[in-house]
Amino acid sequence: MSQKTAIITGGNRGLGKDMALNMAKNGINIIFSYYKNEVKAKEVISEIEALGQKATAFYFNANDYKSGQEFINKVTNYLQEENGTPNFDFLINNAGTGTYNLVLDTTNEQFDEMMHIHLKSTYFLTQSALPFLNEGGRIINVSSGLARFSLPGMSAYAMMKGAIEVFTRYLAKELGERKITANVIAPGAIATDFAGGSNKNKKKADLISSITALGRVGEPEDIGGVVTFLCSEKASWINGQRIEVSGGMLV
Prior knowledge:
Number of helices: 7
Strand order of the largest sheet: 3-2-1-4-5-6-7
Mean pLDDT: 95
CATH class: Alpha Beta
CATH superfamily: NAD(P)-binding Rossmann-like Domain
CATH architecture: 3-Layer(aba) Sandwich
Low-confidence stretches: none
Helix content: 40-55%
Largest sheet: 7 strands, parallel
Number of strands: 7
Order of helices and strands: EHEHEHEHEHEHHE
């Protein structure tokens, strides 16, 4: 039985890195994107290879939707050379960043950046990938707890994540004939360098812990296993769903 392959955008750090390592531990080969830190990407490749899986990484600028199409071209060319087929099994749309501004202060440029990174690039990268996604494959899109609850200053970011949840339901509907499922995971507050790493700040971490049922800030390790599960046979009947992974934040 041939090994399966996952594509993960933004796989060189934070949540994406943990997703990549979790999936590799479960016998899945990994292709991921990086934006600025090629050195870090090479370190992640080495970690995955140490687990016995194949790995490679290609550049992707999520602020330019054409870069996503170029990324998929590189991925499929690589897979054709490596495996004799350009097809793959799992697509995880994870790449992104945040912006923190009240509605009153949000600029047109900041709004457009959030739209391009989280919505337009995801839409058209997925569009480019669909012809190469194997029957029975999986798409996992990353949303945010902020699409359910509202915290001041995150409107532009959260709006795009809300749109991604709608997009995911349409993918599930349109790809059903190919037995491809599409689901969303929505992390709560995670202690990474995302959006400047503010969740690592003690004052903010204490606040988050106080409004989370499990009493702490999330870690990247809390997310990767959920993505791996959704790509397993055990999750084959989960489709078109939003799964919040927040430890019970603001329940």
